[in-house]
Amino acid sequence: MRLLVSSLVALMWFTLCGAHTVLLPAYGQRCFFETLNKKDELAVSFQFGDRALESTEQMKGDFVVYGSHDHEVIKAFRDVSHGDVRISVPYDGKFEYCFVNENSGTTTKDVTFNIEGIVYVDWNDPKSDSLDGAVKQLARLTRELKNEQSYIVIRERTHRNTAESTNDRVKWWSVFQLAVVIANSLFQVYYLRRFFEVTSFV
Fold first, then answer.
1. How many CB atoms lie within 10 A of CB 44?
2. Residue 134 and residue 140: Cα distance in Å, rounded?
């Protein structure tokens, strides 16, 4: 009987999580749907990036969550490089979340995002603070930590590209300076030799 109750509590607390990377079209958007019930939670963490390996710019975009009633905007982020959204669903229905690139013609912009849905559990239920609940909470915190690490990896890639680009510029500037110094030295030697030359007239 106890095993049956534990199984029922585990089924009541169902968590769905997935990681995705999609390419955003120029002046377009990518949208996804989730069918949720009232008081369920929808959590999305995202990071805009660039698929071009030589890119050193931090990409930005918009993120919007729409409800099923008249397509109203529930949450919106404008011109951001990353974000972390957690929404308690106000009613039953199909909810749409979109990554928007409508203000940019960049064709290599992508977005890496993690989606997590948590079915509502009544906290007044005496079973909600059971071992199963604690394990689910620990699993959720672990996923959040993993999402944060994914974000750090993307930022590190962008910063590494910036550093390599800066190093290349410094290298070629140093080569140019060396060439200028050598040319200047040769000119001075040539000029001084002409200055000290003795000319004789017959």
1. 22
2. 10
Question: Which of these, 149, 90, 80, 89, lies nearest to 114 by C-alpha position?
Answer: 149
Kindly indicate the confidence band of residue 105, based on its pLDDT and cuts at 50, 70 and 90: confident
Q: Does residue 144 contact residue 177 with C-beta atoms inside 8 Å?
A: no
Q: Find the length of the chain.
A: 202
2-157 adopts what CATH topology?
Jelly Rolls (2.60.120)
What backbone phi and psi angles, to 5 degrees, belong to 142? -65, -40
Q: Are 151 and 48 in contact (CB under 8 A)?
A: no
pLDDT band at 173 (very low <50, low <70, confident <90, very high): very high
Task: Give the pair of three-digit tokens for residue 72.
Answer: 């109203």
Q: Is pLDDT at 202 greater than 60 in this prediction?
A: no
Measured CA angle at 130 (ends 124, 131), to 5 deg: 155
Query: Which band of pLDDT confidence, cut at 50, 70 and 90, is reported for residue 5?
Result: very low
CA-to-CA dists, residue 5 to 87, 99, 166, angstroms: 29, 41, 61
Cβ atoms of residues 38 and 91 within 8 Å: yes
